[in-house]
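User: I'm putting together notes for a lab meeting next week and I want to include a structural view of one of the chains we've been expressing. I don't have a solved structure, so I'd like a prediction I can at least talk through. The sequence is below, exactly as it appears in our construct file.
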Amino acid sequence: MKNTVKILSIVLVLVMAIGMLVSCAASTFPAIKSRFENAGYTVDAEEATTGEIETEEGVITYTIHTITLKKEESEGEGSLGDLIGGIIDSGVAALKTVYVWEFGSDEELTKAIAEKYQDDKDFQDIIADLQNSDYVNGNCFMVPNLNEDAVDLFKGNK
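Assistant: Thanks for the context. Below is the predicted structure for the 158-residue chain, given as structure tokens.
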């Protein structure tokens, strides 16, 4: 009986450890993508690009996702509203587009940014508190954006 309890305990601990490892390695991007899509943004998988950052420990691969606010359907063509809307749209395009860099893990994100900005003394303080930044969510980094709604959606505050 004692051997059975020991074996079951060991199996249970192993299952819990594997579960923790799998949950830690999971990307936060699917949840981020879902929040943006629910708020009227689109994520174009074809526009996603990949890149690499070389570090002392090896190469870190990342994916850049482009998230864009869907355009409202126009009521009519050639109206003054369309003209003004087009001018405004071009002026605030930066508020309608969000770029999210997805890394393999939280640690890879931190290492990649530290490697990229290792010579920038001002940036070292930011790196020290990176995971608490509004622009970092797990293994994803959002390029700073003036759109407060985008920041809230990215962090899951909305």
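A couple of points you could mention at the meeting. The radius of gyration is 21 Å. Strands lie at 41-43, 49-55, 58-69, 97-103, 136-137, 140-142.

User: Perfect, that's what I needed.
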